[in-house]
Amino acid sequence: MNKIFRFLALSGLVFFQTTLLAKPLYKDASAAIEARVEDLLSRMTLHEKVMQLNQYVHGTNMNLHNIGKIDDHYPLEAGSYIYYSQDPEMRNELQKKIIKETRLGIPAIFAHDVTHGFRTIYPMPIAQAASGNPVLVEQTCAMAAKESRLSGTDWTFSPMLDVARDPRWGRITETFGEDPHMNSIFGVATVKGYQGDDISSTERIAACLKHFVGYGATQGGRDYRQADISDNDLWNIHLKPFKACVDAGAATLMSAFNDINGIPCTSNRNILTDILRNRWNFSGATISDWASVSQLKDYQATVATYSEAAIRSLLAGIDIDMCSGCYSSTLDSLANINAVPIDRINEAVRSVLRLKFRLGIFDRPFTTETKREKRLMTPENIAIAERLAEESMVLLKNNNNALPLTQHKIAVIGPAATDRRIMYGEWFSHGDVNDAQTLLEGITHEFESQTEISFAKGCDFDGNDRSGFPEAIETARNADIVILCMGERGNWSCENNSRAEISIPQIQRDLIKELSATKKPLVLVLTNGRPVVLTEIEPMLDAIIEIWQPGIRGGNALAGILSGRVNPSGKLPVTFPRSAAQIPLYYSSRRGARFSPHGDYKDIPSNPLYEFGHGLGYSCFEYGNIKSDKIHLNKDDELTLSIDVRNSGDKDGKEIVHWFVTDPISSVVRPFKELKHFEKKEIKAGDKQTFTFKINPIRDLSFMDNNGNLILESGDFIISVKDKKLKINLE
Ligand code: NOJ
Q: By CB distance 3.0 to 4.6 Å, which of 176, 310, 371, 490 could disulfide with 186?
């Protein structure tokens, strides 16, 4: 009896310890992620699974396009939230509730659009590409990741990899420009900057590649429109940066709003599953764009009900529904009647759980609460933002060495001089516009000890009010040189900000014309998020500096360039047309059919005002000839090209060398030339640097056919750097 009793008691204890007391496997930090995912999945009800596939907003959504407000009624089982706070407290409070009050205590992920800084705002992506410095961009993104994660944000919706060739499209400023290779390199740098080697680190966040795919080809540059993309362009242009960033290990990906050839990207199984999952083996999580699941019914009208919208999106490959509510309101009942396979729901839930385990959120659900000054806008963070601003500004014109300035009396004129908002562009996360230094503040700080500085606004960015003209003209007359701070308002580009006219507005052009009558040298400091048309005013200007939307210390960066403390080194990642009527105009178009290969207009020159890759500096760089370690190679060989660049000027400077490849004869019509490599190096005055490019034929000499198969054709290839050329031969 005693024995039996002892046996029963012991068995009870073992059962109690192994079953009731033992930590479930998914809570065991030392277990493998896949085992934890499977263990947790096996414990979840259908409803709990479905809720993991939904994203809600937490906090007050201040984004004009997605206005939402604090909502206390969201279900605690939700998988993730867009988090509208720059402090961890609100996150921790919600996370505590989730862990305590839900059955399995699955912590949530907190996301935000951190696209060019969290609180320390640095230049917009188009400007980052102009820097030609992916190493610096990676460091800057790492800084943004650290500010984000320490503040309670685990996941950003960036980088944006839409190759854009229409400057009327407002979102061109969020891209790395018109070239697929450039988008790939800066995309990968951004992913690495955010994610590092391990996204569970308290200083790293998950990246999200967006918008998959073809959003940059939205028709007429109008936002949210259809995209009609040839298979040739899809494979050789639009998919390329995504493939590069998938290979770099990006944790998540967002679908695009647009349709491609009639199929909305949100419900496009070909791109989301056949290409992304099956061909590229992407193992991360996919998310829709904001409400794009319900838009299948509400706007694109490819389905009649929200249930159908949910089915189509889920089956196409969208794991998470961003804020449309379609998944949460329909998937439970659809799965119960077998209208969606449970296997597909399980697969999507696995993606979300895997992301949470990779982020370390199960093991560290709360963010340590620290003071803002410890984690935001530290001097080091501001310094790196300023460095990127310096490197991203592009000197477009500098007649008779108008710059750097040598004059004693400087007039600063124009609406952008004192406007903080232009410094930040859009999507500036938790940036506070009041942190931004203005252009005038930067100039004053740089010059005031030895120079007389006067200021007149002259006019606003737009409108017809010319009452400030006389004061501006008088100010110019009393100065030796005029710095015009003009261009676009801070909110004229980005989402839902397409523009038909991309010249700077008439009122600003009129002021420039009147100021040019004073015969004072005019330097235009141009702020904008897109290429603008400058054809009418360009002849009146002695110098033009493109500063884009340069971030928190853009004023200092500009002033450094004006004074010569900083030698400008940015180059255009996008073509500046002479007229909006030339759009689309980009350097890598395919060869035309007859004698005018680029396709001429009879009434204007057919070339752009400023070409892709254009950018001046204060040094004089002389290029030697391209050298190669061999001329013939086969497809498994590598070949090393090099070129010497000498700085024959008297200022140390940085030069970006662009390497292009042309395939003179190919079975399909190919671009005139394609960028395959670029590098930026510092070259001391009087010194020389050797730039190299190792050609890998499969990577650098191939193209994709219309089915996405890699084609490598033997024959000659022309390598070019500026006007230097070298022929190589693939056997
Ligand atoms: C819509 C935008 O298209 C996307 O880029 C952004 O990440 C989401 N809204 C979330 O704010």
A: 176
Pocket-forming residues, ligand 1, beta carbon under 6 Å = 63, 66, 113, 157, 210, 289-290, 495
Mark residue 135 as left, alpha or beta (left: phi above 0; alpha: psi -120 to 50; beta: remaining): alpha
How many angstroms separate the CA atoms of 90 and 60, rounded? 12
Residues forming the active site: 289
Query: Are the C-beta atoms of residues 620 and 647 closer than 8 Å to each other?
Result: yes
Q: Which of 622, 616, 617 has the alpha carbon at shortest distance from 688?
A: 622
482's enclosing H/E stretch is: strand 481-487
- Cα distances (Å, whole numbers) of residue 62 to 67, 82, 279, 427, 636: 6, 11, 38, 10, 53
Tell me how far the alpha carbon of residue 351 lies from the centroid of ligand 1, in angstroms: 20
CA neighbor of 524 nearest in space, from 514, 532, 512: 512
Token pair of 347 as six digits: 């697969």
Provide the mean pLDDT of the chain. Answer: 95
Q: How far apart are CA 109 and CA 200, in angstroms?
A: 12
List, for residues 165-187, the tens digit of each pLDDT value: 999 999 999 999 999 999 999 99
Tell if the pTM clears 0.90, that is, is over it.
yes
E strand segments, 338-424: 394-398, 409-413
Q: Which protein residue has the closest C-alpha to ligand 1 atom 3?
A: 289
Q: What is the pLDDT of residues 383-433, one digit of tens each?
A: 999 999 999 999 999 999 999 999 889 999 999 999 999 999 999 999 999
Residue 210 three-state SS: strand
